Predict the structure.
Amino acid sequence: MRPESSRPIGVFDSGVGGLTVLKALMERLPNESTVYLGDTARVPYGTKSAEVVRRYSLRNAEFLLARDVKLLVVACNTASSVALPSLAERLGVPVVGVIEPGARAAAASSRSGRIGVIGTPGTIRSGAYRRALEAARPGVEVKAKSCPLFVPLAEEGWTEGEVPTLIARTYLEGLRHDRIDTLVLGCTHYPLLRAVISEAVGGQVALIDSAEATAVAVEEALRAQGLLASEGEATHQLSVTDVPDRFAEVGARFLGRPILHAEQVDMP
Ligand code: DGL
């Protein structure tokens, strides 16, 4: 039997977006093997109800547990915002979401205590970032805004130029007037639009990418449980529930390297 620590980390997202989190994990923890599941048959999660996203999330988690993962990363902000407590309660492995690490990083970075959060409608409606920010820094002033069009823009590769600039300015005008000093990119896709978001909100605003903060949290959780992998050949498996070719093509931009193979899995 292989040692506990050499088992892979499981990562799921609604589709390609979680690859920004996988990228951060691979950079920070190069010895760790990973199994990634993108639920491309049901994407997007951001516009669906909390109940439906919880159901999909549980099924994704069960798929990854069957692949013998030692820790589960909920790489999707929408899924983290509504499903984390129920997953943590039901699963027998540690579960790390993207909300708390991102909120903690933002709370530590802000000087004024005026923090903006952008995400999908589901994430913003859940209030999860607001609660996490208030817990991390009592008295913080949180300004939240959903920016649903950023998801298709990032997937289409429209990350610069007139159209994304105009959309970003329109969404973020209010936050600019709120004089926030820190903005949480509370969706897997938004780091790809970092330049236009920064321009729209004001260059002096610090942008917090939950992906990097999540990789740090995963490292801490593995260390605490004595589960950090020792040096060896790390393997990375990518699975999707539909259209693996498009996942590979679009996902390469999110992962920052070519995707040679994504396995299609059947999940009713
Ligand atoms: N991965 C989702 C998130 O971070 C964005 C895409 C979707 O709506 O499914 O919230």
